[in-house]
Design a protein that fits this description.
The chain is an alpha/beta fold. Helices cover 44% and strands 18% of the residues. The protein contains 10 helices and 8 strands. It has helices at 2-19, 21-32, 60-68, 90-96, 111-123, 147-156, 175-197, 213-218, 229-239, 260-270; strands at residues 47-53, 77-83, 100-103, 133-138, 142-143, 161-168, 209-212, 245-254. It has an 8-stranded mixed β-sheet with strand order 3-2-1-4-7-6-8-5, sandwiched between helices. α3 links the parallel β1 and β2 (77-83). α2 crosses α7 (175-197). The radius of gyration is 20 Å and the shape is globular.
């Protein structure tokens, strides 16, 4: 009986090891290979910065400030905040910082529905016909000053959709936020980096990515409404044979959970 159990255990471990082999490859190569970098852009393309916000008065101002402080030409991007059922002062803060606040008037709420509403509003307005791509952020993000410049290099190289380097702005708070930061550091410094070098495409992870206007039109907006709409979108692009790129030098900071309950609920939702 013990021999049979040992055999079963060996088979299970072998299968799991085989399935995890790509991850091991990413970790090994990621430690030694230099990240892919893009040439200086020949054109400063026009972007729409799109932020979905639900009662984000505590953090939205810092994100907008980091957007307004970009070293990218100011006439080459517009910032849109999609107000998703807000009852606090998010709208007033947006208006005071001269960004475009759009009320989500659809009956459905949530990030996926808010993005779809925002894209529809922008694409149907002739005033924004010169926008070539959308850059998506969460309200608690903060950008480095060269973020759009670096993403523009990637877009100018012909990559229609790409994600960026995700870091944590509160990793020093406690061991919980530090653990989350290690997870995303691994994702950016190892997985995304190696997949972009191997030219096999990667995935978007919630925030900090751009998608070309023609992809949004082809997808009929943003029709990804599950709790993990980012992975749903990534799978959709893979099925259409569109590779998602990675821009190592475009860095942004994201806020991580600081208590076990929030961390557990977040991971459970992803699962």
């Amino acid at each position: 009986m013990s021999n049979v159990l040992n055999l079963i255990l060996i088979i299970v471990i072998s299968i799991l090891s085989l399935l995890y082999l790509p991850q091991m490859l990413y970790m090994i190569l990621g430690l030694f290979l230099k990240p892919k970098r893009y040439k200086e852009a020949k054109v400063n393309h026009k972007y729409a910065i799109v932020i979905c916000a639900h009662d984000e008065e505590k953090v939205i101002g810092k994100l907008i400030d980091s957007i307004n402080n970009q070293d990218y030409p100011r006439d080459k991007f517009e910032t849109f905040v999609i107000l998703d059922n807000c009852v606090d002062k998010t709208k007033e803060i947006c208006e005071s910082k001269n960004v475009i606040a759009i009320e989500n008037t659809s009956l459905s709420h949530g990030k996926g529905y808010a993005l779809d509403f925002g894209f529809s509003h922008i694409l149907s307005n002739p005033e924004y016909d010169d926008i070539e791509a959308f850059i998506i952020f969460d309200a608690d993000n903060i950008l480095t000053s060269n973020y759009i410049t670096e993403m523009n290099k990637c877009f100018d190289s012909g990559i229609k959709c790409a994600t960026s380097f995700r870091n944590a702005k509160n990793y020093k708070t406690n061991y919980i936020s530090a653990t989350s930061e290690i997870f995303f550091l691994r994702e950016s410094a190892l997985v995304h980096k190696v997949r972009s070098l191997l030219k096999i495409g990667t995935f978007v992870s919630g925030t900090g990515f751009y998608v070309a206007r023609d992809i949004v039109i082809d997808n009929n907006g943003w029709k990804f409404f599950t709790m993990t709409e980012d992975i749903e979108f990534s799978i959709n692009e893979a099925l259409k044979d569109r590779k998602i790129g990675f821009c190592y030098d475009a860095e942004f900071y994201d806020e991580q959970p600081v208590d076990v309950k929030t961390l557990f609920n977040q991971r459970l939702r992803w699962c």
